[in-house]
Amino acid sequence: MSHRIAVVEGDGIGPEVIPEARKILEHFLTDADFFEVELGLAKWEKTGSACSPDDIRELKGADAIIFGAVTTPPDPDYRSVLLQIRHELDLYANLRPIRSLQSSGDGSSVDMMIVRENTEGLYSGIEEIGTERSTTLRVVTKAGSRRIAEKACSLVLERDRNHPLVIGYKGNVLKSDLLFRDTCQETAEAYGIKTQAVFIDALCLDVLQHPNKYDVIVTTNMFGDILSDVCGYLTGGLGMLPSANIGEKYAFFEPVHGSAPDIAGKGIANPVAAIRSAAMMLEYFGMKDEACLVEESISSLISRGISTPDLGGMASTSEFGSRLVDAVSKK
Ligand code: NAI
Ligand code: MG
């Protein structure tokens, strides 16, 4: 089946890392139809809109979207492109695998999945901005909590590691989180899955100290955003972390990192997070073996010292991407 894939490079390092992810997609999806959609700050500066209704229509016409990153200007009237897309496409599940590349063989390798609720919580977009007082509404609904808990439970079963589902929350302070916790617990019980509810602040430390204790962690929107960046520490930094934003109808794949203006234009950005996001797209299309091959080939290159400077190597962004295509072509 031929797939229609929307490619959004975005701002900053987006136009550097996404072409490398695209090379991998083009290698495996030979008859896919790729089309580009321009979104982000550069477009906002040119047209006054970072993401228009036409852009959303175009994205909805794709079977899957690969996205780089966009820069957010310091302007209170600017509407976050990502929040807009997540809401309009109802991409309620943000899946963020935290996986170290090579297994060290002593069981110390890291392999967990953060399941972040992606449409409500503190990123509801409901805000009143004033000069003396500004508020943001934190929304937790039963239906929203249930559907993300169901996604997390199905991942616990699929991964089959006999670990409890960990619920990251802060119900001692935010009463809205009690609805989240209770709904996750009820849902897990129906699936026959044990749960462990942990306060998010303590979880941020424990996950670094004892990463092997964790398998699937489900949490609300902003906590998942922060926890996944924290976990970047376990896997070599933000340049390594991919993500998938999945809804009932649409699927959107993006590196966890932002547009990294501090290194943009230098050709040194690590493309691994973007390439692993492309591998998640392959898996979404049922190409699990191909996705594993990409992961193994990334591991193998990095273990041979071929990497971008953030991992201590000398390779440029495009050099790493080309070496990776060579590596997967030889298998
Ligand atoms: P960032 O993730 O862009 O950068 C944080 C640090 O990590 C920087 O030092 C950067 O150089 C480094 N880094 C990030 N990705 C890297 C890569 N692939 N290779 C090597 N080093 C990498 O986060 P920051 O600085 O907080 O935000 C910069 C801009 O990106 C802001 O405008 C922010 O709003 C936007 N942003 C966009 C996101 C998105 O589009 N999904 C997500 C996060 C931030
Ligand atoms: Mg983030």
From TrEMBL:
Pfam families: Iso_dh
EC number: 1.1.1.41
Keywords from the named record: Oxidoreductase
Superkingdom of origin organism: Archaea
InterPro entries (alphabetical): IsoCit/isopropylmalate_DH_CS, IsoPropMal-DH-like_dom
MF terms (GO), sorted A to Z: isocitrate dehydrogenase (NAD+) activity; magnesium ion binding; NAD binding
Enzyme class at the top of the EC tree: oxidoreductase
SMART domains given in the database record: Iso_dh (SM01329)
Ranges of residues in domain Isopropylmalate dehydrogenase-like: 4-324
Gene3D superfamilies in alphabetical order: Isopropylmalate Dehydrogenase (3.40.718.10)
Single biological process term from Gene Ontology: tricarboxylic acid cycle
Stated family: Belongs to the isocitrate and isopropylmalate dehydrogenases family.
Name of the protein in question: Isocitrate dehydrogenase
The species this protein was found in: Methanocorpusculum parvum
